[in-house]
Amino acid sequence: MPSLQGIVPPGVVTGKNLLKLMEYCRDNEVALPAFNCTSSSTINAILEAARDIKSPVIIQFSNGGAAFMAGKGIKNTAEKASILGAIAGAQHVRLMAKHYGVPVVLHSDHCAKKLIPWFDGMIEASEAYYKEHGEPLFSSHMLDLSEEYDEENITTCVKYFKRMTKINLWLEMEIGITGGEEDGVCNENVDNDKLYTSPEQVWSVHEQLSAIGPMFSIAAAFGNVHGVYQAGNVTLQPERLGKHQSFIKEKLGSKLDKPTYLVMHGGSGSSAAEIQCAVKHGVIKMNIDTDTQWAYWQGLLDHYEGKTKGSDGNMHPTKEWYQGQIGNPDGASKPNKKQYDPRVWIRKCESAMIKRANESFVSLNAKNSLGDNWTFE
Questions:
Q1: Residue-wise pLDDT tens digits, 95-110
Q2: Could you say which DSSP state residue 34 is in?
Q3: When you count CB atoms within 10 A of the terminal residue's CB, does the N or C end of the chain come out lower?
Q4: Are 309 and 321 a contacting pair, CB within 8 Å?
């Protein structure tokens, strides 16, 4: 597989560089993992993981995650906290991405109809940034109107895409519903038929958006469900994505076997074969949230329930250093500050998150896509 050396630069990629990156992914059967982040800690963990495994990465903020980034002390009236948090997160990513030396796609996750003020606020921030820097603050945004009728969904996406193309923003949209629950949006009781998008629906989106520009992707449902569920509760059919591509190719008379960019949601718990099938059929992005949330927590749990060597040379339960500010296996008057300092146990969370992120890079064929000789200034 060819590397990305000389194709895209490190740092946040937008516009033409973003399109080059997505073309590379499509043509080489690579998908980028898109990790939901809620803090500078989770952002830094994902940047570190991408750097060490030599891959571009997508960092994204959900509406609730962005509000958390702003701090629970700010009310989210008119999506104020979500807007501020997304902008703050974007600024942190922009500052750090070049120093980690990897290309980063800066994205916002599901935006339902009721959350459009959040979408508007982020676009306004990108428009202001574009005036000053010649590129948008973010790389891309997702507008998820899959719960609405197709006509309203597509018409609204067309309206926003016309605005977004003026500042080189990528649009991700969803048609067909991802089941389960995420970030307060619950589709757990939706009819199963709605979990599978038809080729005609995908073509309708592609036809109307491609008339405006090439920088868009489609999250077409193929049985996807957010979260983790028992085996047998979810029937993924990623082969349907190949049928979508064939349908569009025939409609366009295109030479490309994969003429449209597809996105996979609800990937937690999916088998390696299902993921590989999706990537083969043109998925260039897969969302990861549930599994990395668990990994972050698991890092803390494993640390607390683990063992630490005491001054006597013996191993003792780590939790014995966390029962008070003073007193531990080293002595009743010995302080515990070096253990309960947040930098100690937060790093344990980050390390576990990095380990889980690495699994996603590998399963999506993104590992070492920057190449052995990746260099940056």
A1: 999 999 999 999 999 9
A2: E
A3: C
A4: no
